[in-house]
Amino acid sequence: MLFPGYLGGFTVGRQFTCRVEKTGPVRFLRLDGEITGESEASFKNMPVGGAADGALVLDFAGVDYINSAGLALLIGLIRRCRQENRSVGAINLSDHYRKIFHMVGLNDYIALFESDKQARMAFSPH
Amino acid sequence: MLPVHLSRRLRAGLLYMAAAAAAVAALVISLSNSFLQGVTLEQQLNFYLPVVLGQCLFVVLALYTISVVYLKPVFGTLDLLSAGRPVADELAAAARRASFNYPLDMLIFLTLCGAGLSLIFHAAEWLFFYRGNIPAHWWVLTFQNAAFELTLAVSLGMFYFAFSRRLLREPLELTTGLAPDEGKRLTVKGRLLLIIISLFIINVSSFFAFYLLFPLSGRSVPAGLYLAYTLLLLLYSMVAGLAVAADTGADILLVARRLAEMARGAAPGRHQTLTVTSLDEVGDLVAAFNRLQQQVARVYRNVDRELALARAVQKGLLPREFPALPGWEAAAVSRPARQVGGDFYDFVSLPEGRFGLLVGDAAGKGMPAALLMAAVVGILRAEAPRGDSPAAVLSKVNDLVCSVLAGGMFVTVLYAVFEPASGRCTLASAGHMSPVRFFAGGGEPELVTAGALPLGLEQGVTYRDTTLTIPPGGGIAFYSDGLVEARDKSGELFGFPRFLRLFHSAAATGGESFIAMVMDEVERFAGGEPADDLTLLLLRRAGTSGGEKSPPASGRC
Known about the structure:
The complex is a heterodimer. Chain A has four helices and five strands, in the order ββαβαβαβα.
């Protein structure tokens, strides 16, 4: 499934898209492009699923850039998941955004993993 | 400078069009005479061909001469433009009017010529062959022929209309804005109606000839000829229809191309006039767009003025200069990416000789961020001087801000309190960039770890205080994300490693010079104007460490 981002005006950045993969009890969202205010429409329409869909893992491998409006979108998404008592993880996050996530306090809400496998193991019921 | 052969090209185009129109007419009439009217080869050679070719040669010469005289102001204007000389208003207006009117006037002229020549032809035919001995059905045949010839003239006129408009688009583009868009109108609807009716009559009269006149004159319908003629008519109808449709399409494509060019180089507030090349529905659309653009440009100018005022107000919210801080030097710069921005910093005087520094960033850019920034600065100014710890101040401000902020909006703030004598610093961050602590004597600059949710996202957040010491000769820098997240043309981030490396020279450089160096470095990396606000506040403690020269104890921003 592809959810093209909205490119308002004359934005030159890469369009935001998201691909969903359900692997056992974990739902992976493969994010691609830039997460900015311009990707708000597609970001909010991402197939995040509901409480019954288990843990959510955001794959940042294809993400080039997240600005402050993008961070606001991420924070909103993570808070929504927390309200549903869903665990949220992240993989393939660059060193730069690991630092940023820490600075904006996202590390308290999202677990960082090194790989799909590690995330699956952490979120699979034992 | 325009190409000098513009008017020569227009002349050649006119001659070519006239010749093509006459050749098509000669061909169609001759074929019709031979295969439909039953004119023999001898009759063709002795009478019809000389008459038809003579008429057509006359048409070419007449059309070209009339066109050159009619378009004299256009040639004059093109010659002046090619030479890079100014064009007088009257000449430009006459050229523009002639360019708009020529296609329609020529259509009318050609139709009248067609009607006149048809009349002459049939009168001559009657005089030479049938006077006093009119054959049966002659009147019916002549009526059919006249209808065919007249509508053929109209459809050829439509060809001429379409091709002459193609030739005159360039002069109309070049003279846009030099004179008003005035002239005779032939709407797209009118053009379509004319060509449809013409083609309908041509086709009906041809079939009429086949189905009525052949049997009436005692001949059977020749199947092969009928098929060939039908295909020829089909081809002609398609080409004529396409020519008229393509003519209107060309105007629309021209507008679309110009709009795409404008969009690529879009500069809000700059008015760019689209060229009006037709006085029809498309021309009306372009004229309406141009009027709308003028209005939008006016609105942009007003908004720009208001933004400039807002920027002045916002600048007034930031401290003009830091007070003298014995033993310390403070310097700061904030450059908004747009006319107003969301970054801010402030100085807070506290009891017992302590002082506080605030740096923040309201999410987003432009007016919403600026309004949010102004509100938060006001609340922080009220709360910070009460003397609570930075974490307590941020918690209180967060609760106040949460109650008024709309969903998705937030503000990052870093608040640090300093004890000047000891160099002790207590800071708390609400989602702001971690400060950089730097040292004299070659020590590695470091990010001071501090992290928590920005203000405005969640009620009841507890922030943490972090305590550190600024050693003599060292200092601390507060900044906004615009600096570390500046991107070059390939999309690469300036990043923390590159940013931290710059601080190796921070202890040995004057505060203002260092800030200017960092800003220049980031702007050079980004290749021009930054996409986000850039703010950097530097605080250095006087004294030496490891032989480093201590900075002077003064403060400016």
